[in-house]
Amino acid sequence: MTPQELREFCLSFNDAVEDFPFGPETSVFKVAGKLFALSALDARPLKVNLKCEPEIALQLRARHPQIVPGWHMNKRHWNTVTADADLPDHLVRELVEDSYDLVVAGLPRAERLRLDRP
Q1: Fewest beta carbons less than 10 Å away: which of 43, 53, 92, 108?
Q2: CA 7 to chain centre
Q3: Which of 62, 53, 55 is nearest to 95 (CA)?
Q4: 0.85 exceeded by the pTM?
Q5: 1-43 pLDDT per residue, tens
Q6: Which residues of 66-99 are buried (b: 16+ CB within 10 A; e: fewer)?
Q7: Which tens digits make up the pLDDT trace of 83-101?
Q8: Mean pLDDT score of the chain, rounded to an integer?
Q9: Strands across the sheet containing 16-19
C-alpha cells in the first residue's frame, strides 16, 4: 500500500478527516474528533497506528511480524502496522476499517446515528 492509497482509504469513511496536531509530518485521521489512524506518510517504511480489539491484536501480532504493539500508544488497544511490507493490501484495508468501526462504536448514540445517515 502506498502513502496516497492509505490516505485516500482513511478519508473514504463517513465523516473522516485528516488533521496535523503533532506537526505537518504526522497525519492523524479522525472521525467525530476521535483518532482512528495515525501515520507519518512520508516515512519509510510506511507504518500506521490502528485501534484493535485487545485479543485480536495479540493474534495479529503472533501471526504477522509486520504488526507490533502500537508505538507511543496504549499497547493493549493499538497496533503499529507496517503497511508497505509483505502484508496484503486487503488486510491493511481491513485493519483500517476495523479501527474506524471500533472508534465509531464508542461514540455516543446520537453521533453514531448521525454517521449512519446517507
Answers
A1: 108
A2: 10
A3: 53
A4: yes
A5: 999 999 999 999 999 999 999 999 999 999 999 999 999 999 9
A6: bbbebeebeeebbbbbbbbeebeeebbbebbbbb
A7: 987 899 999 999 999 999 9
A8: 94
A9: 16-19, 27-31, 34-39, 47-51, 78-82, 67-69
